[in-house]
Write a structure and sequence with these properties.
alpha/beta; 14 strands; 2 domains; Peroxisomal Thiolase, Chain A, domain 1; 379 residues
């Protein structure tokens, strides 16, 4: 059995806004959400800025995570009670643990910090029967969550799957990336020859996946089809990707094979594009190996929205739908002087394209690589 998988509803919250229309218009205009971090001290961190969600109504001692998720769920239509639930987060409400350690000297919120607590909370809020599972695979988490949901539907195991992903900017995470020397002290510049690290971001996304039958039964618009997905691990290093791009190459070829399309049918790429030296070069190497010299438009949104970790792939899928609808890839904010391998493909301004297929890729610590192929649906 290999049933088609459709995205029938979607939502997102980012530093550029709390609805898809606002975020997309600001992204295309070249706006950036990166600003100084003020909700904790950054004295000992390499970076003092991040892409933050504005005006979160959280009180002292509360996590930033749940106000973001509340804003996300407000945008979704009701989902069937029988829907399966898959979440993706790398650290969940880690700021609760920080608060305990800093102000109480003991850990009382351990259960609330476990990523699966976000899954349980979402199951209650969505009123679904499924307890859900959380996927934590570093920066490829939500890409793999969507792939997992698509697989359940394609193989007849589920009719409807809700995928929700979120991560926040916390002192724990910013300090960790500082210790790894992975952060830039300036806003990140994906694919630029002078890039020197990433900028963190926070946000959330949700997509509702349905089979063809379920979409008809619930009278839902098919905004896009998830027609291919893949995953592979390059087993190279705990934090650094294989420089020849072997894991990403295998992942993209899996994705194209599953969708039964050729490489020259892909119209545009939403890349991971973190702004780190090795990740960006690895991606360009992999894309060149697969797509050759074709001047395929490539973009990264992390120069504008920051690296949202476990939420990155989900946010990029939602914006990928907007990209397909408008036949436009957003600017790669901060990329003034592209790497030679990306010249003619990467731009600091929006680029038009023509076609129905968009490839979205993500890579993460531990060598994980994941990809999704989206086909334009009904507008």
């Amino acid at each position: 059995m290999n049933r088609s998988v459709h995205i029938t509803d979607y939502a997102l919250v980012t530093g550029l806004g709390c609805d898809v229309k606002t975020v997309w218009s600001r992204l295309v205009a070249g706006d950036s959400a990166i600003r100084p971090v003020e909700h904790f001290k950054t004295t000992n961190c390499l970076a003092k800025s991040a892409a933050l969600v504005n005006d979160l109504p959280c009180q002292a001692g509360e996590s930033r995570l749940y106000p973001i998720l509340e804003q996300l769920l407000e945008q979704l239509d009701c989902v069937p009670q029988s829907a399966r639930l898959i979440t993706a987060t790398t650290k969940g409400a880690i700021d609760l643990l920080e608060n305990d350690c800093q102000h109480h000297g003991q850990v009382s919120a351990a259960a609330a910090v476990v990523p699966s607590s976000m899954t349980s909370w979402l199951a209650r809020q969505l009123d679904v029967d499924d307890n859900g599972i959380n996927i934590n695979a570093a920066c490829a988490s939500s890409t793999l969550a969507i792939a997992r949901g698509a697989g359940l539907i394609a193989h007849g195991v589920a009719e409807v799957v809700v995928v929700c992903c979120a991560d926040i900017v916390s002192e724990f995470v910013l300090s960790g990336f500082s210790a790894l020397q992975a952060l830039s002290d300036q806003p990140s510049r994906p694919f630029d020859v002078d890039r020197n690290g990433l900028t963190l971001g926070e946000g959330a996304a949700a997509v509702v996946l349905m089979s063809e039958d379920a979409a008809q039964r619930y009278h839902r618009v098919k905004h896009a089809e998830v027609c291919g997905w893949g995953a592979a691990n390059d087993a190279n290093h705990i934090t650094a990707p294989a420089r020849d791009g072997c894991g990403l190459i295998q992942t993209v070829r899996q994705t194209l094979n599953r969708a039964q399309v050729k490489a020259d049918e892909v119209a545009a790429i939403s890349a991971h594009g973190t702004g780190t030296v090795y990740n960006d070069m690895m991606e360009l190497t992999a894309f060149k190996a697969i797509f050759g010299e074709r001047p395929l438009p490539i973009s990264s949104i992390k120069g504008a929205l920051g690296h949202t970790l476990g939420a990155a792939g989900g946010i990029e899928v939602v914006l990928g739908i907007a990209s397909l609808n408008d036949q436009l890839v957003p600017p790669t904010c901060g990329c003034v002087n592209p790497e030679p391998l990306g010249v003619g493909q990467i731009s600091a301004t929006a680029q038009p394209f023509s076609g129905d297929l968009l490839l979205s890729t993500n890579s993460g610590f531990g060598g994980v690589n994941a990809a999704l192929l989206l086909r334009r649906g009904q507008q």
